[in-house]
């Protein structure tokens, strides 16, 4: 039987690629929503959002260095506010990762439609095959996945930047076409700042992989900042590149934006390259959220918040049982979930992300007082200011999301909450009926050794 531990095989640049790859999804399709929210001004909203997310990244960097365990926020919140609060965080985080899965099929759907006609059923079949292949890959050593992610992400980075520069340098691009920069004024801009946080959910993959890194913990902050910077760079250049060529109305009426813009400037070959690259980008997103979900389940199982079987690791250092559950839920939400589910993603994401991030910021402050002697390889300066920015940002995310929620989204969220309550009650029942197996356990440096790095 193999030792039940993760293998330390991930370097700094691999972690950056995996985290940024999780954030950079099929923007060529989703950019339509960005323009609907705030036109070309969505680039300013994305930069604002990234600056605010930076406060969260700094907090995450300190907490990850101090408690570098798979499970991330669940572990931190459990140490701060107890097992039950950690369980709530775990369930919210799982929602974030589960909801990312449909973006893969819908992103691929729109992009493949640029190359050849494809029915929605065919898209779902393709997505199911992709998920099956990815399930197989997730059970190999993580360094194998990291190599794939490296190639996909860095290729995406280079091609997307070159494409945006090509758009901006074309004869069809004009600064006048960018106007009005904020077609919906401050209300559209502020709503975009609150809702576009979804595009940066992915930096929290780093804590999930912290047990598998082979570089000093104090350098984790570089992974957070690096992945955030590269993500906002790609997004903003894309908005400015297409926004100087086509109108907001044109964006709203097209299917996949960047490749169609490439056709307008007479570079169909670039459109084909962008579609191929965009499909690969969807895979990086799938990989990032899949890895995060499986390790979230692993951490919850270690703390007896979920059946302990999900903490098992195979000979390749992968939580294979957790991968099975992630695979099943991925297939359901990608292949069988109703199409309306996708319409709710941004607002439900905001509710779940806002709540989790708020709990993390509060845990950051509490652990500073509760456990001042725990080693912090990276220490946030001006902690109160950073935390205040983080709290205000989280509150705004929640407000913007609630204001944009539809009835169907509320019902979806309620259904997920009911399922969660069932799992929580099951865990509490097991704690009484099988106390030896299900005794609550909170991972920290006092009971779980930390690698010297």
CATH fold call? Amino acid/polyamine transporter I
Rg (C-alpha, Å) = 21 Å
Q: Give the topology string: H per helix, E per strand.
A: HHHHHHHHHHHHHHHHHHH
Report the sheet with the most strands, covering strand number, pairing sense and barrel closure.
none
Count of individual domains? 1
The whole-number mean of residue pLDDT values reads: 87
CATH architecture classification:
Up-down Bundle
- Structural class, judged by helices and strands? mainly alpha
Helix content: over 70%
Number of helices: 19
InterPro entries: AA/rel_permease1, APC_superfamily
Organism: Filifactor alocis (strain ATCC 35896 / CCUG 47790 / D40 B5)
Main location: membrane
Subcellular location: Cell membrane
How is the topology of this model organized?
Elements: H1 12-23, H2 27-38, H3 42-66, H4 73-81, H5 83-115, H6 120-138, H7 142-169, H8 185-195, H9 205-208, H10 220-243, H11 248-253, H12 257-264, H13 268-302, H14 320-336, H15 340-343, H16 345-370, H17 383-404, H18 407-433, H19 435-438
């Amino acid at each position: 039987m193999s030792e039940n531990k993760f293998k330390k095989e991930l370097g700094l640049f691999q972690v950056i690629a995996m985290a940024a790859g999780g954030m950079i999804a099929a923007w060529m399709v989703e950019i339509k929503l960005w323009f609907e929210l705030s036109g070309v001004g969505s680039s300013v909203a994305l930069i604002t959002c990234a600056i605010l997310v930076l406060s969260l990244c700094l907090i995450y960097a300190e907490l990850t260095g101090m408690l570098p365990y798979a499970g991330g926020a669940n572990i931190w919140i459990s140490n701060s506010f107890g097992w039950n609060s950690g369980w709530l965080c775990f369930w919210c985080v799982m929602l974030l990762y589960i909801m990312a899965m449909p973006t893969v099929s819908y992103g691929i759907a729109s992009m493949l439609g640029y190359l050849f006609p494809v029915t929605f059923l065919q898209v779902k079949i393709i997505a199911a095959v992709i998920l099956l292949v990815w399930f197989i890959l997730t059970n190999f050593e993580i360094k194998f996945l990291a190599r794939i992610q490296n190639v996909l992400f860095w290729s995406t980075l280079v091609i997307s930047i070159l494409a945006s520069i090509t758009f901006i340098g074309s004869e069809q691009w004009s600064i006048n076409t960018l106007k009005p920069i904020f077609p919906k004024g401050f209300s559209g801009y502020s709503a975009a700042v609150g809702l576009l946080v979804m595009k940066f959910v992915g930096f929290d993959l780093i804590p999930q992989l912290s047990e598998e890194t082979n570089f000093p913990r104090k350098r984790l902050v570089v992974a957070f900042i690096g992945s955030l910077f590269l993500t906002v760079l790609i997004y903003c250049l894309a908005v400015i590149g297409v926004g100087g060529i086509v109108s907001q109305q044109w964006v709203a009426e097209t299917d996949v934006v960047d490749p169609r813009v490439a056709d307008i400037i007479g570079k169909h070959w670039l459109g084909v390259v962008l579609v191929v690259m965009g499909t690969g980008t969807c895979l990086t997103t799938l990989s990032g959220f899949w890895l995060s979900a499986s390790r979230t389940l692993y951490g919850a199982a270690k703390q007896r918040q979920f059946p302990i079987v999900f903490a098992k690791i195979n000979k390749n250092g992968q939580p294979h049982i957790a991968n099975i559950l992630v695979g099943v839920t991925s297939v359901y939400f990608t292949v069988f979930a109703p199409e309306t589910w996708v319409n709710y993603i941004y607002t439900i994401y905001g509710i779940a992300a806002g709540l989790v991030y708020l709990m993390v910021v509060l845990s950051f402050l509490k652990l500073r007082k509760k456990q001042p002697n725990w080693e912090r390889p990276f220490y946030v300066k001006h902690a109160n200011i950073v935390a205040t920015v983080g709290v205000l940002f989280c509150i705004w995310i929640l407000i913007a999301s609630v204001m944009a929620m539809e009835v169907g989204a509320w019902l979806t969220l309620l259904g997920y909450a009911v399922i969660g309550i069932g799992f929580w009650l099951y865990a509490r029942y097991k704690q009484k009926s099988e106390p030896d197996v299900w005794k609550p356990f909170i991972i920290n440096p006092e009971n779980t050794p930390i690698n010297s790095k």
